[in-house]
Amino acid sequence: MAFKVFLVDDDRYVRKGLMNLIDWEGCGFEVCAEADNGEDALEYIQKFHPDLVITDIKMPVLDGLELIKHTVELKKTNPNFIIISGYSDFNYAQRAVKYGVHDFILKPVDKEEIEETLRKVADKYTKELQLNRNRENIVAETAFNDLLTIELEEDLRQDCVKKLNIDQTIGFAYIIIEINNVAVNTIKIREIISRTIHGEAVNSTTLFREHGSNRIGLLVTNKEIQPFSGGIFHFSEIVKAQLTIHLQTDVTIYVGRIVDDAIDIKESYETAIKALQFKYVEASEKPIVYGNTKNRSVNYIELDQTQYQSLMEHIEENLISEIRKDVVMMFEQFQEEAFAKDAVRTSINRVVHEVVKTLQSMDGDEKNLTTLQNMLNWDNLPSTLIEIKNMFLDFLLEAAGLLNRLNKECGSGNIRRIKKYVDTHYKNDLTLKHIANTFYMNPVYMGQLFKKTYGMYFKEYILQVRINEAKKQLRQTDLRIYQVAESVGFSNPDYFVTQFEKTTGMTPTQYRKKL
């Protein structure tokens, strides 16, 4: 950006000589106007606010020093001044310094001397502009954050809007941009977005807000959208395409609802965050615009308990093909039943934690799983659904292999599977003999091994599981006592009440009333 310079000298040839002598553009300036007397110059300065005034001392009506004095005293504008004069009287220089004149150059003008002075002035202006812009940006970003995240009174909201330093055009949208699969510095994302929207216009302001690793939000105005024919959706497609080209990875864009007034941008911000939950439901190659999704809502649910149990059994038995089928079905269900992004995370993490828990119960070291760290941190770095699926499957197959080796090395492998069986089949009529036959073990040996492994007899463990489940149902349902007894594997309600009281110190009815 070239700074504006205003030439003032009563000698027309001096003015033309300066214009032709100096490489204005190379010094960061352009001549915006000229005047031959101080009075006209003062009027122009007050009206058009040039950045730099180069003036002679000796002029009719109003001399150079009077021009500078009046400009400073009026305080309407604050240009830099350079005095060029044939008068070398030291008093002039002293008075010039008093008014903050940048430099005092004697005629005849030396090209190198004045160009060096101009470059210093341009450098000073550039630093001041950058400093002011940084201050304005800090104020704007603070106001932006307050407007989005704090419940403000009407007057405070209006005050925040004024500090945003944006064109108050009609139409605003908050957009969240997410870079998948690779870690990227968000400063680079900002630069690409700014260039896409504003080109090389360095003074243009874009309001950004960090949303964690590889995710950044920004406010887009209708004025910025208009050059991209096709509205907000097409605008988002172009931003996505530019980021994909520069970063060489998948990009997901979430668009909040368009609002008319900047004071309402919090609504657009909140709906953009809601759009994030559609990530694993919508096609990732298109921007996800809140309100335009094929599924009008997402579901905050979990996979059925039987699916978890089936998957864990296949992992513990190292059935590779079944594990693959389970994972395919699991991820298909995420999409078919419109699982929210948070629900997908919960379902995956539940399996990961169960695998680690099973591994630890077999005295295995989870640190031996090379894929564990990725699965513990998978949601910290945004990824596509296919990338998550592959990562998850790699983890499960490695865990199944490790569990299989531990089973072979440890004679208690079967006893742990028996415990799992009791945990999921406690409603059935379970006896030591029946379970031993099911797992092809000697009943006496099985009973001894169970006591040695878990510190309690097999029959005690079955009772513990049933009583714990009964307590859960008494807390969470309105079932009658006999119904609870039957649902947890007691055929005799009176025996259930006796065992419940013996274990907890109170009857089922007393337990429920205590809640």
Uncertain residue ranges: none
Largest sheet: 5 strands, parallel
Distance between the termini: 72 Å
Helix content range: 55-70%
Mean pLDDT score: 88
Q: Percent of residues in beta strands?
A: 5-15%
Question: What is the spatial order of strands in the main beta sheet?
Answer: 2-1-3-4-5
Structural class: alpha/beta
Total helices: the number is: 22
**Radius of gyration, whole Å:** 38 Å
Count the E strands.
Answer: 10
Shape field: elongated
Describe this structure in words.
- The protein has a five-stranded parallel beta sheet, with helices on both faces.
- Strand 9, helix 10 and strand 10 (288-289) form a beta-alpha-beta unit.
- It is elongated and about 120 Å long.
- It has helices at 12-21, 38-48, 64-74, 90-98, 111-149, 154-162, 186-198, 222-225, 231-247, 265-276, 305-316, 320-336, 341-361, 372-376, 385-409, 413-425, 432-438, 443-454, 458-476, 481-487, 493-504, 508-514; strands spanning 3-8, 29-35, 52-55, 80-85, 103-106, 172-179, 208-210, 215-221, 251-255, 288-289.
- It contains 22 helices and ten strands.
- Helix 12 packs antiparallel against helix 15 (385-409) and helix 20 crosses helix 21.
- It has 515 residues and is α/β, with parallel strands linked by helices.
